[in-house]
Amino acid sequence: MAEHLLEVRGLTTEFETRDGILRAVDRVDLYLDPGEILGIVGESGSGKTMTVLSIMRLVPRPGRVVAGEVIYRGRDLVQVSEQEMREVRGAEIAMIFQDPMTSLNPVFRTGWQVGEPLRLHKGMGLRDSIGQAARMFRQVGIPEAERRTANYPHEFSGGMRQRAMIAMGLTTAPPLLIADEPTTALDVTIQAQILELLREIASQFGTAIILITHNLGVVAGMCDRLMVMYAGRVVEEGATEGVFARPKHPYTWSLLRSIPRLDADEREPLHPIEGMPPDLTNLPSGCAFHPRCPFRIQRCIDERPELVALVDGQRAACWVTQAGTDLELAATGDAWGGDG
Fold first, then answer.
1. What's the per-residue H, E or C state across the chain?
2. CA distances from 67 to 8, 31, 75, 128, 230 (A)
3. How does pLDDT run across 303-338, given as a tens digit for each residue?
4. 24, 107, 147, 160 — which has fewest CB within 10 A?
């Protein structure tokens, strides 16, 4: 079997706080193959962004990666020198950050910034790099691309700054692209254009993409596989179609029930997830989701479930589904549904 482009094993990232150790990423495993799009979803604070920052070795202080491996093309990025890691960032693995307002330097022209990875990693001259930046501007839908390369970030709208960040991430045609909420600041028309661009890049160039998003509709239309995180842990993983059709973790099931559906009865109310995400410095016993879970059993309170493969190829960390309970049937009362 061929090696994966990226394989993460047991990745753990901690922060020292006044209240104790905060484990933001807790023994995360994932893999990615060329041309594959992996979606990572979960509520704010679930560990999505911190996972990819850990992969890139960009965890802000006082956080640090304390365990695990990040194997990229046969090398463990946790162990390489900072100089080697700088050579990987931008050229091999590019990241589109969530906040374009702070990701672009206000004192440099946007074309100069977008072309910088080409000068650093490809040895391209200034004129050629800015010409390539203009081409990328056109590709991501920025009008008057040549003229706009001479603008400063403050002359761009929020949506245009986000598109400039996407252009910067794509300039070197990296084998792996990490996109953290790449369409947050964009209207729906531009969102669709950007997502179609990402799909084309994955299809035509074999670029692997990790897409972090809160939008489950985006995941459904974009991603080959889906990883669901809660309290710094992966609670479910599998092919997107399978996870949507038959979620195996109550948290995934609850997320899907909380969003509007075109095929649902318009009189049917939405079902928000009860309660709040846990304090990562003081996690509940057992499964971290059990205080909010409608299916919990005593074992969920007493023991933490591990992420295990189920019969249909999905993986889930849930005592209830590992025992064979179907969440949809349990919710309708046609199967046992716990004591919650």
1. CCCCCEEEEEEEEEEEECCEEEEEEEEEEEEECCCCEEEEECCCCCCHHHHHHHHCCCCCCCCEEEEEEEEECCEECCCCCHHHHHHHECCCEEEECCCHHHHCCCCCCHHHHHHHHHHHHHCCCHHHHHHHHHHHHHHCCCCCHHHHCCCCHHHCCHHHHHHHHHHHHHCCCCCEEEEECCCCCCCHHHHHHHHHHHHHHHHHHCCEEEEECCCHHHHHHHCCEEEEEECCEEEEEEEHHHHHHCCCCHHHHHHHHCCCCCCCCCCCCCCCCCCCCCCCCCCCCCCCCHHHCCCCCHHHHHCCCCCEECCCCCEECCHHHHCCCCHHHHHHCCCCCCCC
2. 11, 17, 16, 42, 19
3. 999 999 997 789 999 999 998 888 888 887 654 444
4. 107
What is the Cα–Cα distance from 192 to 165, expressed in whole angstroms? 16
**pLDDT tens digit sequence for 194-239:** 888 888 888 888 899 999 998 888 888 899 999 999 999 999 999 9
Question: Pairing mode, if any, of strands 93-96 and 37-41?
Answer: unpaired
pLDDT, average across residues 119-146: 92
Tokens representing 76 are: 């463990």
Question: Which pLDDT value is given to residue 265?
Answer: 65
Lowest-confidence region among 64-78, 113-127, 320-334:
320-334
